Amino acid sequence: MFCPKCKSLMYPKNGKLVCRRCGAEKEMKKISVIRETPHKDRDMRFVEDEATLPKTRVECPGCHHNEAYWRLRQTRASDEPETRIYRCVKCGHTWREY
Question: According to a count of CB atoms within 10 Å of the terminal CB, is the N or C end of the chain lower?
Answer without folding.
Answer: C
